[in-house]
Design a protein that fits this description.
single chain; mainly alpha; Tetracycline Repressor, domain 2; 66% helix; 0% strand
């Protein structure tokens, strides 16, 4: 199976800090390092000082871009949401069921590329928000999410019409099953090794598991 999990080194002793060659956008650097800190400490366990230290700036400089940890967390979540919708949009379109399975693979691989993705998504759903309310929490991502959900709905309805998918499934059911299966499976792992080669193999296994689950879930 193709290995498209992006490699990122999270060990504090090895990952380079400060300004990166060829990358002068301070806002993006802040987001990169905030994502790293969230991946290692969780969305409620990081400080602006930690992020500033990794970027190589003073904490007050962060306020030129974000109002505080809440605004920074929101920006990181929006970037993750954008990445997830783009990953899903890249799924090859074939038959309705196979396309949905490809959507599941793209989503699983994207979420598996960084523990921050999983931890922030879990936080959104743990807050008591419904599936779509969590995705629409931040207005900047709402349009892209709605477009993605409409495409999923069209695929599902076509699959039902052609007898490939059982009746009664809609985008909410499919999305809830997919997100739940992927997030819980990824969360039930040891994030300490996510920068190691074995992590890519683990994500490959999770892709297979999710595909098998969805195949049975969608079957008429």
């Amino acid at each position: 199976m193709r290995n498209r999990v992006r490699s990122s080194v999270v060990n504090d002793d090895h990952r380079p800090r400060g300004r990166r060659p060829g990358k002068s956008n301070t806002r993006e650097q802040i987001l990169d390092e905030a994502e790293f800190v969230i991946a290692t400490k969780g969305p409620d366990g990081f400080t602006l000082q930690e992020v500033a230290d990794r970027v190589g700036i003073r904490p007050p400089s962060i306020f030129s871009h974000f109002k505080g940890t809440a605004a920074l967390t929101e920006a990181v979540f929006n970037r993750i949401l954008d990445g997830a919708t783009r990953a899903i949009a890249n799924a090859p379109v074939t038959t309705p069921v196979e396309t949905l399975l490809q959507v599941a693979e793209e989503f699983t691989r994207f979420m598996g590329s960084n523990p921050a993705h999983t931890r922030l998504m879990l936080q959104q759903f743990a807050s008591g928000n419904s599936q779509e309310a969590a995705f629409h929490r931040f207005d900047s991502g709402a349009e892209a999410v709605e477009e993605m959900l409409e495409k999923l709905d069209a695929l599902i309805q076509l699959g039902i019409k052609e007898g490939e998918i059982r009746d009664g499934i809609d985008r909410k059911h499919f999305g809830g099953f997919l997100v739940g299966a992927v997030l819980l499976r990824l969360a039930w792992t040891d994030f300490d090794g996510w920068d190691k080669p074995d992590w890519a193999a683990l994500v490959d296994d999770i892709v297979k598991e999710v595909r098998e689950l969805l195949t049975r879930y969608l079957a008429p």
